Amino acid sequence: xxxxxxxxxxxxxxxxxxxxxxxxxxxxxxxxxxxxxxxxxxxxxxxxxxxxxxxxxxxxxxxxxxxxxxxxxxxxxxxxxxxxxxxxxxxxxxxxxxxxxxxxxxxxxxxxxxxxxxxxxxxxxxxxxxxxxxxxxxxxxxxxxxxxxxxxxxxxxxxxxxxxxxxxxxxxxxxxxxxxxxxxxxxxxxxxxxxxxxxxxxxxxxxxxxxxxxxxxxxxxxxxxxxxxxxx
Length: 232
Description:
Elements: H1 12-48, H2 52-66, H3 70-80, H4 87-94, H5 98-125, H6 128-136, H7 141-171, H8 183-194, H9 197-225
Helix pairs in contact: 1-2, 1-5, 1-7, 1-8, 2-5, 3-5, 5-7, 6-7, 7-9, 8-9
């Protein structure tokens, strides 16, 4: 049986690499979540809007994004989309951290497409009488949604949105394919330099598992404090 030595990857430069990747993965998750939630709410409202054009736009966004693997989204926004820009804009983009930007865009759109369906389900779970009462009081469609329906729907959709956050946390690992210095990218660096594959990926697995369990515990706690129910 080979000798295992975790101290190699948990000290010095290797440890710093892993911590840097772990923190960057958390930042990537947080930033994407902040951007994806408003976009998801907007798309959900489009799908329930009285305008057929708005409904079609929402449908095309959700189905178009969800029908393509996240890996393809990553590669498109890193390799494909910049090529459509003017040369000056493309050079400016590549002079910065285009890898992280591409990952944020891909993860935001991908997460928003799934979150939008969760929010739409929550909106539809609120009794229609709530919407009719709001309209009878003189609120517009957007006003009724913003002041009456959406607050109730968000309470209903908190558990599935937290589950989507769990998926988002795990999906950040795919950003390694375009060179984003997140946890998996740094783990590969450590494994290549140390030749300690088992120890490296055991630590990385534990890191992903720890955050995933924390998110799961948060979901359970929220469901206990705020049970999913709509007003009648």
